[in-house]
Design a protein that fits this description.
alpha/beta; Rossmann fold; seven-stranded parallel β-sheet; 40% helix; globular
């Protein structure tokens, strides 16, 4: 019996989906390949074998045939190219990343080809709100699929509410490579450096974070650095919030960064601020932002909210402080409380390093994922 697993994604690979790369590159007993339509950042995430439609040679007739069918709306690439890859590689496990990909792969599930689908956030929130037939599509997936993986118990409840039997749901934590992160504990003698990370979308709570920082730090030795770029908000909108709060000179926008530069920001901050909340559109953090894991692995305390599965990742009072989503006053008080006690900040940082090594390191989680595959066969 072979041990082949195909990981299916739309794009290989957005910077925000490094957790997929961790599993791809850390299989021990399964031979992985990745299949998708588009590619990006392949220089950062080198991996083969890749079966990416847009990487097909332009002389390949399938590129033009499948592309024309998709452009004309006759058949999507996932109805032409993906079945071809499945026929040729015939994996024992199809691992779909994000719910809509699981829907696309459901027709190709077989007794000897199991389907695993990982849900991450928008696919159980915004997608369901915006797509009228999403629940119907998901019901087919839940009927035909073999296993649905989520990041934590809050996400498990969402998927179950969508119609997935509880017996088919498993919790598989987001994985990071802690060996790439050297802890550097907070040093506030020279001032406080607070970090926020994410696209400028409502669920990230950036306006709340800026206002809370302004309320907590009126002095000049505090800096708020914001890594990310436009989404629902433009940078100038967030800059106006900072200007109206008289902290414009204390706020630095870095834009989107390469992964190593982003990790450097995490490494050099004193505290991570992650004011996540439910967006008006229904968009939600699926589990918890990956930056929460990398910040704790870097030895940094976290001020965040009880939104989604964040309490499953951050231990309130031990590795950070959590407040109700959208409560700017509580966020401000948490920042003040945390930074007023440098010894406590270091204690939280050390507890976070330990927690991440035990619960989220890829060396711990990759074998657990392969064990889940084993149990399906």
């Amino acid at each position: 019996m072979s041990n082949d697993v195909g990981h299916f994604v739309s794009n290989y690979l957005p910077i925000t989906e490094t957790f997929i790369y961790q599993y791809l590159t850390n299989h021990e007993r399964y031979e992985p390949f990745v299949c998708g339509t588009f590619s990006e950042n392949v220089d950062l995430f080198e991996f083969s074998p890749r079966e990416i439609f847009m990487e097909l040679p332009r002389w390949n007739p399938r590129f033009w045939t499948y592309g024309a069918l998709a452009k004309l709306g006759v058949k999507d690439i996932r109805d032409t190219y993906y079945p071809r890859v499945l026929e040729r590689r015939d994996p024992d496990i199809m691992h779909a990343h994000f719910g809509p990909m699981g829907v696309d792969l459901a027709p190709y599930q077989r007794d000897n080809r199991k389907l695993v689908t990982s849900f991450y956030g928008y696919d159980a929130s915004r997608f369901v709100q915006q797509e009228a037939d999403a629940r119907e599509q998901y019901q087919t997936l839940f009927d035909q699929g073999d296993l649905v993986l989520v990041e934590g118990p809050a996400m498990a409840e969402k998927v179950e509410e969508l119609g997935c039997p509880r017996s088919k749901i498993g919790i598989q934590r987001i994985a990071i490579n802690t060996s790439r992160i050297t802890p550097q504990y907070p040093d506030v003698d020279g001032g406080i450096r607070v970090l926020m990370v994410g696209r400028f979308v409502q669920k990230k709570g950036m306006p709340d974070g800026i206002k809370a920082f302004a309320n907590a730090f009126k002095r000049n030795d505090a800096e708020l650095r914001i890594v990310g770029g436009p989404g629902t908000y433009k940078q100038k909108q967030l800059q106006k919030i900072a200007r109206d709060a008289n902290i414009e000179d204390s706020v630095t926008f870095t834009g989107f960064l390469e992964y190593d530069d982003y990790l450097r920001e995490v490494h050099e901050c004193d505290l991570l601020l992650a004011p996540s909340k439910l967006a008006d559109s229904g968009d939600s953090e699926g589990g918890a932002p990956t930056v929460l894991l990398e910040a704790q692995a870097s030895g940094k305390p976290v001020v965040s909210t009880t939104h989604a599965d964040i309490p499953y990742v951050v231990e309130d009072g031990e590795t950070g402080i959590l407040v109700e989503p959208g409560d700017v006053t509580a966020l401000s008080e948490a920042l003040t409380s945390c930074t007023a006690d440098p010894e406590k900040m270091e204690e939280m940082g050390r507890a976070g390093v330990k927690r991440m090594a035990e619960r989220h390191d890829i060396g711990v989680l990759a074998p657990k994922l392969e064990q889940r595959y084993d149990e399906l066969r």
